[in-house]
Every structure is written in structure tokens, then in C-alpha cells.
Amino acid sequence: MSEKQKIVRDKIEFKTLTKKEMHAAAHERISLIAREFKEGFTFLEDFPRSVTFFGGVNIKDEDPFYKKAESLAFRIVKELDYAVVTGGGPGIMEGANKGAFEAGGKSAGLTIQLPREQVVNPYLTHHIDFYYFFSRKVCLSFAAEAYLFFPGGLGTLDEFFEILTLVQTKKIEQVPIILVGREFWDGVYNMMSTELLKRGTIEDFDLTLFTITDNHDEIIDIIKKAPVRNGIPIEHFEPINPIARKECTPCEGNTPPLTHEQTEILLEEINQWVLVEDTHIEKTIHLESFREAIRFINRVAHIAETENHHPDIHLFDFNKVKIVLTTHAIKGLSENDFILAAKIDELLR
């Protein structure tokens, strides 16, 4: 250690925190993190169909990639009516937000507080600010229908490998990851195929989880064909109730409805559902707000589409959701109704 470093060290006053002070500091930090996640996810609910753009902050507006981001975002809004989401800063983010803004669409920015104030681009129609990088990153990768990566620096590569890892490990659905700028991304691909694959740290399949293309028509087609996501896939949560682990089976109306005795047995396996005339089961859920009620309905709809068994849903008093389950094909109850009820219960854990 140099003499200068010793002098600097000696001038620093270290204060040992008490257990009470550490607890208070940790509580304050956890509260801020929880608030950022809640506000971030609430913010994203206004964009049920979106595409997230990533790319370098130092790319200028005269750069061809800035122009490509602008043009592609314009088409995504005009042709698909999707929102465009970015980190809200300059460079590629600004190009994408500009294209969406000039197309008259939703142009959202998830910005970050920095020691030196971040430059927020002027093309945002919606905006939310974060203190923590990791909570912002989670929200940027939460529920877009596709992710577009343009050339960039460490942050862009960090986001790319983060989302690629989430898809590879099935923590999120297999969502389109599109890399724009072949001359840039071919280098990354070559590193992965010649170094990582050769050493056995990745598999051949991992190299198929993303697409490198400069063809805007191909990109639009990929996005158009991508399913609408609901964030973290529900099937990746391990249900507590054994009946919720079952899957609904197609019902063609060729089986009789459950008897009253069978229904009573299955009722004991689900939580506070009410039997109505041996033909329906129903449950009313009270949510915190209208927004939470809509979000809950969307999650129920996601399960129903996955199981291909659909409930009747009623929203009333702005925050109450009544769900009615029956198997219409047999004009009564089947095991499918109880499986779906158990899966809905899992949402309320």
C-alpha cells in the first residue's frame, strides 16, 4: 500500500452499525425494492402487447442502427399495434422510442437513477424511474412478446445473456430473442459456438434460442406469430394441491356428470368453492383494486386457455371477481371443473 493510500485510509472514519441500525437499514432497503417491483409491474400492465428494445446508449442519431431501430419501432406500432418499451435513455433506446412516438403509439421508458443524471429521451409517452438496476432489469424482461437487441456495450450484452439464460432454464417462456446487426452479433455467436460449445458449457440447442437477422419483414413476422405472454409462466410454479397438478382433459359430452357424492368428495380438495344445484361451483374473490381484479382475470384466462377449459367470469363492485365453473358439454360438473378451481386457488396463495 502506498503512503498516499495509507493517508486516505486513515482519514476514512468507519462507523460500526448496531444491530438495530442494521435492521432498520435492511427494512428500508427491502421496502424500496418491493415498492419498485410493485410499481414496475403495475406500470407494465398498461402494455399487454409490447416489444422491448435494447442497444448502445452512445449510438448517435445519424448512425444506421439508430435509423433501423426507429424504422422498426414505427412498423411495430403501425402494423401490429404493439407498445415499444426501452430503458428510456439515448442511443438505440431513443431511436426506438422516436419511431413508436412518431407512429402515434405507446412509447414507454424504464429509466434508472444514476450518480450523474441519466439523459431521458424526449419521445416517451409513458415513463417510470428506478433506483435499482436489478429491479429495472426484471421489469424490462418481464412480459414482452419479443426482445430486440441492437449493437451495444456491456449493458446490452448483460441483458442479452440474462434473458437468454432465463429462457434456457425455463424461468420464462421461450420468447423471440432477435439480434439486429449481423456484423456485430456474428462475433458473439462465433464466440459461443467456438468457445462455449467446444468446452461443453452450452449445448447445440442453446444456439437456437435466438435469431440473428437484419430483415425487418422477417422480424415483423416473428413478432406477429409470437404468443401474447403473461410474465412468469404459471406452469413453472409447483402447485401445493395435488389436484392442481393434473391437467384438464377434452370433454366431448360422452360421459355423465359427477354424482352428488363424487362432487362432495372433490369439494373437500379445493378452497371455499360453493356448490350450486350439483351443476356449478362458484367462488367470489375480493381484490385490492380494479387494476388488481383485471390482472387476476387475465391470469385466470391464461390458465383457462392453457387447459382449454373456460369458466364464466363476472366483475362487479369494481374489485370483486366471481368465477363460475361447469362443464357445458355434459350440463353438469366434471373433474375438469375441480382441476381448474384448484389451479385458480394456487393464484391466491
Q: CATH top level of the largest domain?
A: Alpha Beta
Total helix count?
A: 11
Radius of gyration: 25 Å
Helix content: 40-55%
Global morphology: globular
| Beta-strand fraction estimate | 5-15%
In the CATH hierarchy, the third-tier topology of the largest domain is known as: Rossmann fold
Which CATH architecture of the largest domain is right?
A: 3-Layer(aba) Sandwich
Assembly level: single chain
Query: Helix-strand pattern, N to C?
Result: HHEHEHEEHEHEHEHHEEHEEH
Main sheet properties: 7 strands, parallel
Q: Which stretches are poorly predicted, pLDDT < 50 over at least 5 residues?
A: 232-237
SS elements, strand count: 11
Tell me the number of structural domains. Answer: 2
Q: Termini, distance in Å?
A: 55 Å
Protein model, in words:
A 7-stranded parallel beta sheet has the order 4-3-2-1-5-6-7, sandwiched between helices. A 4-stranded antiparallel beta sheet has the order 8-9-11-10, covered by helices on one side. It contains 11 helices and 11 strands. The chain has 349 residues and is an alpha/beta fold. The protein folds into 2 domains: 19-232, Rossmann fold (3-Layer(aba) Sandwich); 239-347, Transcriptional coactivator/pterin dehydratase (Gyrase A, domain 2, 2-Layer Sandwich). Helix 4 (92-102) links the parallel strand 2 (83-86) and strand 3 (107-112).
